[in-house]
Specification:
The chain is α+β, with helices and mostly antiparallel strands. The protein has four helices and seven strands, in the order αβαββαββαββ.
Length: about 150
């Protein structure tokens, strides 16, 4: 919570802060979730001393848990965060399960707001691809960092 309150006030944070926040979020989910949920998480071992706008990656990770977990169905979430030169790649894939949601929870504003932020902060320096089928939701995000 400290990270959220402190770093969202800044325009940019150290790149290493984002994977750390995501790792903490995922570990909290592991404690909360049933053992039947298959959860794969890979993060780059060496994180370069670059900066990124805060909280750009977490909406996609949160979305995978929000729509990909049901204790009565086979749940599988795979999240990878890699770096190639100065290009950051986030991949978040989850199978879609039945989840009861209120109207406000079905809004999809998190991804739309993040898409808008990406266009403002990283114009022509990012590629966001979202593929959705009846059974799977997959996000691929590339950001060229400097």
């Amino acid at each position: 919570m400290r990270y959220t309150m402190k770093n969202t006030q800044q325009d940019f944070v150290l790149l290493e802060d984002e994977p750390n926040y995501i790792s903490n979020f995922i570990e909290l989910q592991r404690v909360r979730l049933d053992k039947s949920v298959k959860l794969e998480y890979q993060v780059m071992e060496e994180i370069p001393a670059l900066q990124i706008a805060p909280m750009l990656l977490i909406p996609f990770v949160e979305n995978a848990f929000k729509h990909g977990v049901n204790s009565e169905q086979k749940s599988h979430i795979k999240i990878e965060l890699t770096m190639n030169n100065n290009e950051l790649q986030l991949s978040a894939i989850n199978n879609k399960v039945d989840v009861q949601r209120t109207v406000s929870e079905r809004s999809g504003l998190g991804i739309e707001n993040t898409r808008h932020r990406l266009n403002l902060i990283y114009p022509s320096k990012h590629l966001l691809t979202i593929n959705e089928s009846d059974k799977q939701f997959a996000v691929s995000l590339y950001i060229h960092l400097q």
